[in-house]
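Extracellular solute-binding protein (Devosia honganensis), 447 aa
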Amino acid sequence: MSNRLRSLALGLAGATAMAIPAFAVDLDITCRCVIGGVNSATAEWIEESVIPAFEAANPDINVTLNQFGGEDAQLTQQLALDFSTGAGPDISGFDGFLIPSFAEGGLLKSLDELIGEDYANWEGWDHISPGIRSILSYEGETYGVGLGTDVRMVFVRSDLLDEAGIDADGWQPSSWTDLLDAARKLKEAGVEFPLQLNAGVAMGEATTMQGYWMALLGTGEAVTDADGKYIVSSPGILDTLELYKTIYVDEALGDQRAQMLADGRNRSFANFRDGKTAMLVEGDWFYRSVTAPGAEFEVADRDEVMSWKKMPAQEPGAGWNGQDFVSISGGTGYVINPNTEHPQEAWKFLSFMMSQEQMTAFQDYQPGIRSRSDVPIPDSPFLTETSQALLPLTTARPNDANYNAVSQEIQRMTEAVVSGELSPEEAMAQYKAAVVSIVGEENTVSL
């Protein structure tokens, strides 16, 4: 090649190199969120606030949100497959109870291992309590950053209670008998499915947490004992299963079919919206997102026709820790794919998303109890009242690698009873055998 042609070629190559950024990174983030659908506010916050602000400050990094509209269990299965094969998004929304099983299975790396010093020195840790941090931790290692926590309660259609002759404003059930008596009155008044207590496999962890736990805690028991052993046979389990049987089999006070349908949880939301269900045991997310104005299951005139009550123990004083009322809290957040090609950039985005500025911005999209103490709860009567009343009563799921598998057996046990396939005694015996095979007999106890 002549010197003249060589110079021309080098000049063209140089011009091309100048036209293309010297360094660019593409990141993607997945969450169970769809604009106009499930967790719409989360998707809107990430798309409209977090990503534009981050990319403006980091022009060499491009971020794409993958909106996932399926069920929680479907996303969990997809992430397990992706993380085990080196695929999947760089950052993903994640439920804290999954951390132990994913960590034990080698499907996650701790942030210390993945990121190192930048993670340890993040300013946000000074504003996140050890309890909140533990939601996405396991055996002393932190695997993600929590977005917030929640509480659970009984949501009621005040308008339907009033029509049935129950003073919705003054009524607070003090026992399961009170709940069932109210459900019977509502049934007599024409409400098709007065009471919803989540059950069955299709609803996944929503069955375990919003349904089974909320009843079981009312008996004074939990899924594990004080030594961390799984309780596999007990009066509390039997009483909880008898409650399910009363609601769905004996007296048809709830939508039995919905507990077995793939879209059963959405059906329970629609039943409440449409006035077919008057009492629904759910998390505060139900108010903040599911029934919010503009949501798929928006309840018209929500604050006039809808209110909440504390979940009563089986009898006054018979609940967990001798309480009259019970609740349980979980928490979600975000983790980094252990196989990401860009761990430092992924952490840069995640820590930016969880900054005080961005989490405060999230409150404008969806008020909530955030993980950072320097992000105040907005002026929301609902959040103020529920957090003050229920956080002192709440507990949490065991931070144990076997919990997810045991939870699936809880779902099967409730479905067997609700469908009428097994009696409570038979279902409990089946549960005992399954859990013993999962955790070993030495890690179980019968009361």
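Residues 40-57 form the longest helix (18 residues). The chain has a mean pLDDT of 92. ok done for today
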